[in-house]
Amino acid sequence: MNSSPARYSRSIDWPTVLIYLLMVGLGWLNVYAASYSPDAPASPLSSLSFQELMAYDWFKQILWVATAVVLIVILLVVDYKAYDTFAFVLYGGMILLLVITPFIARPIGGSRSWLELGPMRLQPAELAKFVTALAASRYMASINLRQQNFRDQLVLAGITLLPPLLILAANETGQALVFAAFLLAYFREGMSPLILVILAAGGVILILALLVPKLWLVGAFTLVLGLLFAFNSKLWRHHLPLSMSIWVVVIGMVFGVDFFFNNVLQAHQRKRIEVLINPSADPLGVGWNVTQSKIAIGSGGFAGKGFLQGTQTKFDFVPAQSTDFIFCTIGEEWGWLGTTLVVVLFMALLVRIVYVAERQKSVFGRTYGYCVASIIFFHFCVNIGMTIGLAPVVGIPLPFFSYGGSSLWSFTTLLFILLALDAYRKQDLERY
Fold this sequence. Notes:
This protein is an all-alpha fold. The protein has helices at 5-11, 14-35, 44-47, 50-53, 57-77, 82-85, 87-104, 124-140, 150-169, 173-177, 182-188, 193-211, 214-231, 233-238, 240-264, 267-277, 288-299, 311-314, 326-358, 363-387, 405-423; strands at 115-117, 120-122.
């Protein structure tokens, strides 16, 4: 356990805590607005029993917030050295939980990713994020990423890729995609930028293959490669085999995207991509959520319709409005001012996390800090992107705002482990 409570409390990064409290408080207000019904009792706390109150998302969110406060106290009281000491033990337990979840979980929304524990449900995929961040940071603290051998690269890739593969087995594509964010943390610790460039280029090629006629795309790439050879004679002498290999790979990707799209992706995943490319493709089906979300956000105007005055919210036009689409509630009731405040809060939190990460005394603490920033950044971008039609709907919550105990506990744990490490950074000697 940590000693000197007064000194420890002074070492906690209180600006980050304040931002967290603001976000959680605003999140609860909007969960209340999203689940509000004009027909509900004026004072439900005094007129309804506990069992009846449990039917309301806003009341259950109060319980999640209360338990999150208890969780924060535990995370800050536990000896900070335990987080890297037991990182691999936690990772092993989490892998075991992910393995058994599809076999014992009841199908919910087409996936088997929720464990039912009495009246509450737990999603192991949410917990896998901070556990994987701990394990990856612990491993990276034991190697030099700039000088690591192929074996080290394979081990790190295995630590990072195993959880999303198991999550995919439970049919949770969105949660699996989040693990791509770890690449940003690895880049900070010395991973070659070429890897990011290759992955980004591959993503662009796949997207273009869906939008542009394939022969045009192949012709344009061949023309660019030919011009490079024409104006740089060294390519002929030194890089011809590599260049031709890249050309073959790109051609294979362009013509292989149809097979992947039609035979690997599930029907609802194909529909979401089609709607992203062409919003009018299925306006009353898969495109309904995004269309109604954009209507809600746009109708808010500059200052919004006012708290509890959102018509899209009241009449349930947007499904999952208290969870994945909470941002459209903010846009409708608080307008441009409210959505801008949310974006500013996230930017402030991310800047603060990066600042905290950079002042860590250990590689473990710094890497973990960047993992925290990368995960929150990914959720923030994708969630808001899908509510305004810039990203496919993949079921990713908005951190600290979306309704749900697993999400709130996961992001709270992710953040406050970093704050616990930071509070004792002066005592954290280089042990690796």
